[in-house]
Amino acid sequence: MLPDVLNLDVRYIALGSLYLVLGMIMGLVMGIRQDFTFVPVHAHINLVGFTAHCLFGLVYRAWPRLQQGALARLQFWLFVPGTPLLLVGIGVAIKTNNPVLAATGSLLLILGALVFLLLVWSNLVRRSNTP
Hints:
elongated, single chain
């Protein structure tokens, strides 16, 4: 049985830090080669991989109650696997003109973002408006 709190904040920040380094290395390699074919992958590694993961982690750290319960775990398990599917899928789409993998990853990310919105809305926004 998994504990109710899985330290999602730490996991998200660790993953985001990994994506930061991967994105920087990819940018460096593209610059050295002067081949910018995969700039969309590089941009999404930095935006979705680094920025979104770290922001989720920081929000979960600031409001620990958000990471408690099944919805937080669902959000994590939608967003975390969706990210590499999107990133690899963008690369595949660039090379083969087949966007199926990127679309699948995007769908998981959107669902994860919607669950996060639900968590924020129900735990922060709605609670701050109740007397």
